[in-house]
């Protein structure tokens, strides 16, 4: 009945529209809203009209996460959700999965997803979200050993990528499900469809050579492509992909986008992508939902981009009038070597991942380590951090020297105190204990461990006893990184204007800490947003002024203002001329320095490494 009525309405028959049951007794504006709704509902995939979006548990008088959202996605349109902050964009996508509350809720019969109403289907099964934007909020209190993949594969990690795809195991959780002895014809039919999707997509996304590798051996980018295939095998009708390009190398990005485009065009499934502001927008995207704090700007791509460009130009004009030029780097004499690699190799059975790598990293140098997904960047870093067992086995022609000593002559705990590291693996593995504060997490960076220690939360040193001047230096350093990258610096960077750091807590003889940063330092790490956690882990890497800083996907999950603040801090003294930095990223523009400032590039290709 509804459809018939709708058809009539779409022909624009005003008389019939006014006669529609339920519209009698409505005011003119209610009637026009109601008519507008019915028009919009036809062919709508998503429809939100004038709703606020709240966290569950918040009342309607609390500040909504998003205000007055008007967003209709129609069949055939290709949408990207773009966020100036990573967090807000992800929250919007999560609200489509029911993680947040819409008030007023989109009314039945169409509801939030009109396309699922005839015949009625459960949005829970039909709409899937795969997110690469954020790290898990909590991985529990224990540290899990992310370096396990570098050694001999343990029995429980033996499950291969192929096995993980077919439901006997939870993907990336590696728990065998109850074994089913006999299958019904429906189950068999579903399986054969899954198998066809699997064959098709693993071929298109270049995963076939990896199918029989243990899941834990896959690189970051390989794992991400595999997660997308797994989600598609469940045949959702709408797939929300948050930051599918993050962590993918330049050659895999167009391949994935091409696959997504053809899937979307045949609605198998419809796809909505979440993108970061700096990601290129694929040509086939026709519409954009731009998340700007608590507002959503939606419309045709060109219109939204034009509006955004004019807003951004105004902000940039304000910012450039007050910005300082970055502090030039110290002179370029050769610093002391922190790592010397000569003919270094890594092999798994017959698989040679690194072949004869020659590379020297010195104090005062900034390097961009490049290479396609699976080219061995993480493996190379794990040799330098000493986490890889093969860091000990470089003999004869092969040689690995770290901080002027052969690898075998320097203990792993000592290495951890000399290297500050941020990486997706470490971020996932870092324990989220219920009552560990931000200050304590930063303080673990001095000794490179994961368990807070010492009465000031600044560690106890490798000898277990810190002299008073070292205690003072460490406390001061925690305050310095908090002031450099903490919330007061985000405010500074989001408005475009420097805000006076009022409310400063006075600390006799030491670094001053604003109230905002002080409060932040007392918060529980586990309660922070994913972006805030990333910032804290960056501070942890920098706090001890280690000789070597390794920054692998360092901006993951951070909002724009956090990225700007952290970049500025890194460029303006956060790392000094006595420190070496290696940045791993698939995006040139993510590296805080450029070649004019002395940045050098080292590229891995087919196992070999060259300076480019
Ligand atoms: N235990 C293992 N057995 C076999 N191959 C392995 C093992 N561990 C890692 N590999 C392979 O080593 C290669 C290098 O992996 P690595 O994680 O270093 O790549 P990456 O350059 O960091 O990739 P990404 O850009 O995706 O993060 C990958 O092809 C991976 O599958």
TrEMBL record:
<protein>
    <recommendedName>
        <fullName>ABC transporter domain-containing protein</fullName>
    </recommendedName>
</protein>
<feature type="domain" description="ABC transporter">
    <location>
        <begin position="48"/>
        <end position="317"/>
    </location>
</feature>
<dbReference type="Pfam" id="PF00005">
    <property type="entry name" value="ABC_tran"/>
</dbReference>
<comment type="similarity">
    <text>Belongs to the ABC transporter superfamily.</text>
</comment>
<feature type="region of interest" description="Disordered">
    <location>
        <begin position="308"/>
        <end position="328"/>
    </location>
</feature>
<keyword id="KW-0813">Transport</keyword>
<dbReference type="InterPro" id="IPR027417">
    <property type="entry name" value="P-loop_NTPase"/>
</dbReference>
<feature type="domain" description="ABC transporter">
    <location>
        <begin position="339"/>
        <end position="612"/>
    </location>
</feature>
<dbReference type="GO" id="GO:0016887">
    <property type="term" value="F:ATP hydrolysis activity"/>
</dbReference>
<dbReference type="InterPro" id="IPR003439">
    <property type="entry name" value="ABC_transporter-like_ATP-bd"/>
</dbReference>
<dbReference type="GO" id="GO:0005524">
    <property type="term" value="F:ATP binding"/>
</dbReference>
